[in-house]
Write a structure and sequence with these properties.
The structure holds two protein chains of two kinds. By secondary structure, chain A is α+β, with helices and mostly antiparallel strands. Chain A has one domain (about 20-180): Histidine kinase-like ATPase, C-terminal domain (Heat Shock Protein 90, 2-Layer Sandwich), CATH 3.30.565.10. Chain A is built from five helices and six strands, in the order ββααββαααββ. In chain A, helix 2 packs antiparallel against helix 5 and helix 4 runs antiparallel to helix 5 (about 145-155). Chain A is globular, with a radius of gyration of 16 Å. Chain B is of the alpha/beta class. In chain B, helix 1 runs parallel beside helix 2. Chain B has one domain: STAS domain (Transcription Regulator spoIIAA, 2-Layer Sandwich). Helices cover about 35% and strands about 35% of the residues of chain B. Chain B is globular and about 40 Å long. Chain B has a six-stranded mixed β-sheet with strand order 1-2-3-4-5-6, with helices on one face. The chains are: A alpha+beta, B alpha/beta. Chains A and B meet through helix 1, helix 2, helix 4 and helix 5 of A and helix 2 and helix 3 of B.
Chain lengths: ~180, ~120
């Protein structure tokens, strides 16, 4: 099942991992429930073992990983899907990066949603999330489209995306979420 | 109507829904891939409980929950709210966990039920 699990090998998704970042964990392949469990358990163990990460920071990073990885289960079925967990010592931050294939319609929707999210304040983001939570609408997988809002909120808006040419009229959607230490 | 006891896992919460006490307890973490599947029977149980009289107590003490679980929790609380049964919601959050505190405040603002935000030691 684990078609490719690599640790400490910054070869995957180099286009998205910032220069100088150390790749802690990367996986490329099909994402299934068991894959998700394995990766999340691994990340949780890593975060517990890192003395520089406080519990609130660890919870934010873990929650962001849950949203990104579960999104990959729901929206990808090809081996072009990947997840990278990296750390920048110089900037003192963690990054979570996911890539998956999307069609043109999906890419337009994602870019539009991300542009909208990035232009609003933290308070507006919270209000928007609350309004989606209150709304009875659900996506096929139950979240009602809250995943991106949650990622933006967890990262204080440090969320970026890239669309790269792929194959079969698809684009590779790369989503990066950067989490810095919580400031007092 | 039977009580529901489900042990917690790395992705699903410990569930203890007790008919006699009219108490719904959720603790641990709620990050299943398919939250609707997990919560549907719990919501149905809650509907049945709310058809009878008596105060319902809901205790939510979660370490983590994913966005699809957040919608299911909202559904569960809305069912109680719309039943007009008397109820009390106790939302527990770890000290320093601002996200969980904010989530509790948001549910409190949306749901018209008595809501207590209770800090825990973590």
């Amino acid at each position: 099942m684990y078609s490719e699990i690599k640790k400490q090998q910054p070869s995957l998704s180099q286009y998205s991992v910032a220069q100088g970042d150390v790749v802690i964990f990367s996986y490329k392949g099909v994402f299934k429930e068991q894959t998700s469990s394995h990766i999340l358990n691994w990340i949780e163990r890593y975060l517990k073992s890192d003395p520089t990460v406080t519990r609130p920071e660890s919870k934010k990073i873990f929650k962001a990983a849950v949203e990104l990885i579960q999104n990959l289960i729901h929206h990808s079925s090809t081996s072009d899907t990947s997840f990278v967990f990296s750390k920048s010592e110089s900037e003192n931050r963690f990054s979570l990066i996911s890539t998956n294939l999307v069609d043109t319609k999906q890419s337009d929707e994602l870019v539009s949603a991300l542009c909208a999210i990035k232009t609003i304040s933290e308070d507006e983001l919270r209000l928007l999330k609350k309004s989606v939570l209150e709304n009875d609408h659900r996506s096929d997988h139950g979240g009602g489209g809250m995943g991106l809002l949650e990622l933006a909120k967890l990262s204080n808006g440090n969320i970026e995306s890239e669309l790269l040419p792929a194959h079969h009229d698809k684009l590779l959607f790369c989503l990066s979420v950067h989490l810095k230490p919580i400031q007092d | 109507m039977d009580n529901i006891f489900i042990p917690g896992t790395s992705k699903t919460p410990e569930v203890s829904f007790i008919v006699e006490a009219r108490t719904l307890n959720l603790s641990g973490r709620s990050i299943p891939e398919n939250s609707i599947e997990f919560y549907s029977s719990l919501i149905a149980w809650t509907d049945t409980l709310c058809n009878s009289e008596g105060v319902v107590e809901v205790n939510i003490n979660l370490e983590y929950f994913n966005t699809s679980s957040s919608k299911c929790l909202m559904d569960l609380l809305k069912r109680i709210e719309s039943s007009n049964v008397e109820a009390q919601v106790n939302w527990y959050y770890e000290e320093d966990d601002e996200d969980m505190l904010e989530a509790g405040e948001d549910y409190d603002a949306i749901i018209d039920l008595p809501f207590k935000l209770i800090i825990t030691g973590g």
